[in-house]
Amino acid sequence: MRFSEFFDCAYVINLPARTDRRREMAKELNQMGMPFKPGKVELFAAIRPDSPGPFQSIGYRGAFLSHLNVLKQAKARGLKNVLVMEDDLQLRQDFHQYEEVLLRELLKTDWDLAHFGYGCDERFDTQKVDAPILQPFSGEIIGAQFYAVNGKALDCLIHFFEAVLQRPAGHPEGSPMSPDGVFNIFKWQYPTIVRLIAVPSFGNQRSSRSDISTQWFDQLPVLGSFAGLARKLGVARSIKSLLRSLIPGIAS
To answer: Is 101 exposed, middle or buried (0-12, 13-18, 19+ CB in 10 A)?
Structure first.
């Protein structure tokens, strides 16, 4: 079984202006056997607010609202499950080898949330990947680039997102934050929710200019293009240091 067969619909959250990420995601999806297809694999136009409001930044607010509205759309369409991806998702090269194993685990589990790609401070033995590779998890993950929601959990999850949105900063039950933070607190406050993660993570975040935390050099036409190339080569940090040494007094 393939992801394209299992999930009712897959959404890719993408700012319309980020055509670079859209092209990269098209390549990833083709490798997954999930090319863009109306009603099955769709782009969701990410929300870009005019102000950060109660969030840390405009980017965090936009990410929060985009994920919330994807979930609302899935609910409105009556989907029995939904796969959500961000446009900087980069799959592990061996994803195809374990795709069917991941789905078999979902089929035999009464699951609510499943994170296939994430960051995590906890250490797992990733040298060997033995079934089952989906396991219950109540810790903290970083990133919301590759996850699925069972249709039966949509109402509860949407309600929680909306409750978080209404709370003042610093509220003990959670206040406006990034989507991955919402997923963490959601599990803590609803311990009966079955949250699974893939071990190891099968989806990282591709290195590219961030719309959440933009670096100063991304704002300059020439250096912005150079930075994009540097990220693809994995040397953005070195380039940043080099530019500081070449231009005295430049901001970090």
So the answer is: middle
Exposure of 90 in the CB half-sphere (CA atoms within 13 A): 10
**Cα distance from N-terminal residue to C-terminal residue, the chain:** 48
pTM (whole model) above 0.70: yes
Task: Find out whether 118 and 201 touch, Cβ atoms under 8 Å.
Answer: yes
Radius of gyration of the chain (CA): 19
pLDDT digits (tens, 9 = 90+) for 158-175: 999 999 999 998 898 999
Pairing type for strands 141-150 and 195-198 reads unpaired
Name all domains of the chain by residue range, CATH numbers in brackets.
Answer: 3-205 (3.90.550), 216-246 (no CATH)
CB atoms within 10 A of CB 172: 6
Q: What percent of the chain has pLDDT over 70?
A: 78
Give the residue among 138, 110, 103, 118 at the shortest CA–CA distance from 179.
118
